[in-house]
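User: Structure please.
Assistant: Input sequence and predicted structure:
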Amino acid sequence: MEEQGMKNIIPFLKKLAENNNRDWFHSHKEEYLEVKERIESFIGICLQGMVGFDKELDWLTPKKCMYRIYRDIRFSKDKKPYKDHIGVFISKGGAHGNCSGYYLHFEPGNCFFGAGVYGLPPVAMKKIRQSIYFQSEEFKNILLEPSLIKTFGKLEEVDKMKLSPKGFDKDFKDIDLLKYRYYFLTHLVKEEEMVENTYATKVIESFKILEKFNKFLNNALEF
């Protein structure tokens, strides 16, 4: 991975945040396309390594993993036309798959990568909770894997439910595991780490640690 190319990503996003309008973006379209190409190249390297432990990704191309930088402002009070970040979702369903997958986030002051499910409909979340209910020991063992804890810590607890979800025994010994509104693990990244030539290798090795976590969630969603 060419170091200079990765260096361009965050500076471009900083300028976009300060000039979030169509005129500025159109006059800097070539700069954006260079950033997009660099990220796609990076995803391609990651995919080559990831198919070694997740065969369901072998049909993917980098373009199928990238989210659009254009915002949907039809129902939003915020009329900024562009996102202030670039997101990448590597999953068996592509960027818009309703499944668990691996995520990369590029944003000034908030770069990270991780895996899991976020924003799924209630029916899908119920499937995941049911799988955890009947296989809580297996799920806990996955979350307590030393390498996983070292790299990703614990599940994000933002907006966690205070009451037990409907349809589940509130006296279940692991009821706390069912109260998450989403199941996601993240690792924050310093901007200087992204420009290192070893960053792709770090991402691949880190995602491999999450393979069992990702597989558990996807197996749950198949029932």
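The mean pLDDT is 94.
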